[in-house]
Amino acid sequence: MTAHMTFFPLGNADTTLLRLANDDLVLLDYANMRCPTDPNDKRIDLPKAIRGELADARRESFRVVAFTHLDKDHVYGASEFFEFEHSNSRQGGDRVRMDEMWVPAAAVTETCLDDDARAIRQEARYRLLRGEGIKVFSRPGNLADLLAEWGLSVEDRRHCIVNAGELVPGFSKFGPEGAEFFVHSPFAWRTDDGLEDRNENSIVMQVTMREGSADSFALLGADIDHETLSQIVRTTRDHENTHRLHWDVLKLFHHCSYKSLSPEKGEDVTEPVEDVRWLFEELARDKEIIVSPSWPIPMKGTADDKDPQPPHRQAANYYKRIIRDSNGQFKVTMETPSESSPKPIRLRVSAGGITLVSSAAPTVAAAVSSGPTRAG
Asked: What is the fold of 3-357?
């Protein structure tokens, strides 16, 4: 079977669906941001779209739902859509089950939460206490302290914990799912001082998908900045795991913010710091696809261009520049196929690489496929 990746148009918000080779579904974040009473809101009806994907795959549950971090634009509406085992009031009806949850450790240990973020934290704690149905990414001191309060140790729940630099158990590119997940972030040491920064402790992964004897790669991040991304690059190089940074598909960090490239926005183009430049320019494969989960890129001189919030025109100009010599594509979720009618961006993974399926007509594939890494 052929695997697919889908990126939903939700404004500056993230939801990505992976349909694996065996039709199992892995959902990364859930942010139902559309206002149903506003006829001019072009963001997708996410619950309807997700239920349609489940029906098409003939699945009644997700094999995995990962919440990369607990910001609203990554979790909004999750407490109304999913079934939560810890809460009788959030069960039954048409709620969708999560066979397994993936969360960063900060999502388990963070306090002073409400609404969707609190529901996710409580569910994560319930599953971790039970010791099944969850993977927690990294094991900082705060997590050890919480486990100790429950009369448990990190070792007692080691089967539920995945550290940066490890593959997530239960998946294999040689198995029926044809996929493996390598964890790049979060780093355990980031919360040793008791501080918890959601963005910098969010989940970043490389997904490898195999069709036949060919591997394709996707680098999927959340809201990390250039400093964390540089640390990922340096750590991966130090461990001689450079192949774990190759990518055919890049889901942009923080909705095309310049801060994921550099501390300086630039006048017309954001010039990245060296480690980030190396990742994006040397480890990209030919005919790469870059996806910005964001509002449309603003035009120079407009009010949106002066907004400090992403997407940033200067960052987008950098990404557009690096694909010019490799027949790549830069896609924005709220611009594809047009601003007036954005549709999910759907990619097909095959032995020939990753192809872009027309957003307007899912059965039509664009002539774009991945190739070898530019730097060899």
From this structure: Metallo-beta-lactamase; Chain A (3.60.15)
